[in-house]
Design goal:
By secondary structure, the protein is mainly α. The protein has 14 helices and 2 strands. Helices cover 75% and strands 1% of the residues. Strand 1 and strand 2 form a beta hairpin.
């Protein structure tokens, strides 16, 4: 039993990689075309936008906060970018401004930061509940997305805006390389910088972090601004992948983002998890989606499976918390004895 207790924390912390290996093994058996180079690249390309979004959400979760508005920030910035570079009238349905992508990309980045700042101010200065604030922002921004172009599809977009999500380097989509690079940077930030350590400390115990001199409100505000910027970056990538602008871009994506982060080891309670585990969560969801698609499973069942995965992620996170509580209690009892 003591040996089990010794290895159980390692197993729980690295569970995502065991699940990913199991999923890959099952997929290769039931879907013969799964392990082809083309399919692997498709999986990674599908994971790219989701992965970028999970980074922003993981930062928020590490501080003990949610950002449910991220999917709408993605949709708004992606559609606005397409609208600003495209000619007016059918079939393009753009603004007619025909701005350069070099001008539009900074605009959507600034918009993402501004929306993140607004979320952060409402949460930190006005002490509003982060879940409700970002849920309301999700709904508001989704309405604004519909207003911008009256729900029409934007087409014939300037190729310069599409490059990030469309071009390839040495046969590999740039979006994959960018996603992996972003995870590397995010892992470094959370593991080896003072900002990352303060972020984790804030989520672990706000009172203790404040007592140690950390300005927790400032860190939460910065994380929300960073989340908004990351969502805008993902929106830029997403519009490149789609090649056209539609009003429902990113809709419903937040649940998949949350599931990938949590099943990858980022705790909903804050202060625990690492970005490499979150990458594993992204890959696991993408592998499952690809396997179900190759098996021609109904989209209704795919949604049901995603729901089950979210529930499983919550269950795993709860068990991790319970195990650590028992472990801490046992350690204290032993010390007292």
């Amino acid at each position: 039993m003591k040996r089990l207790d010794r290895y159980l924390p390692f197993f729980l912390d690295n569970l995502i990689w065991f699940l990913l290996i199991l999923a890959l093994a099952i997929a290769s058996l039931i879907a013969p075309r799964f392990l082809t180079q083309r399919n692997i690249l498709n999986i990674l390309e599908h994971a790219s936008v989701l992965g970028i979004m999970v980074i922003g959400q993981s930062f928020c979760l590490l501080t003990g906060n949610f950002d449910l508005s991220a999917e709408s920030i993605l949709g708004l910035t992606a559609l606005l970018g397409a609208w600003l570079v495209t000619s007016a009238g059918a079939p393009s349905n753009g603004s007619g401004l025909l701005l350069s992508p070099y001008v539009v990309v900074p605009i959507i980045f600034l918009l993402g930061i501004l929306l993140g700042w607004l979320n952060g101010i409402l949460v930190t200065r006005l002490k509003m509940n982060n879940f409700i604030v970002t849920l309301a922002m999700l709904i508001i921004l989704r309405g604004i997305v519909m207003v911008i172009n009256e729900g029409k599809t934007i087409s014939k977009i300037n190729p310069g805006l599409l490059a990030l999500g469309h071009e390839k380097f040495a046969g590999i989509p740039i979006s994959i390389l960018v996603m992996l690079g972003c995870f590397g940077v995010a892992y470094f930030i959370t593991r080896y910088t003072q900002f990352g350590r303060d972020m984790v400390a804030t989520g672990g115990n706000v009172e203790a972090a404040q007592a140690s001199g950390i300005d927790t409100n400032k860190h939460i505000l910065r994380v929300y601004m960073l989340s908004g910027l990351i969502a805008a970056f993902a929106g830029w990538m997403f519009i490149g992948r789609l090649g056209s602008g539609v009003a429902n871009m990113g809709q419903g994506m937040i649940f998949e983002i949350q599931a990938a982060a949590v099943i990858g080891g980022i705790s909903l309670f804050g202060g625990r998890g690492n970005l490499l585990g979150a990458l594993g969560g992204v890959l696991l969801l993408s592998v499952i989606d690809s396997t179900l698609a190759l098996m021609r499973v109904s989209t209704f069942w795919i949604d049901a499976v995603r729901g089950i995965i979210i529930l499983l992620a919550m269950l795993i996170d709860a068990q991790k918390v319970n195990f650590r509580k028992v472990e801490t209690t046992s350690a204290v009892t032993t010390r007292v004895a």
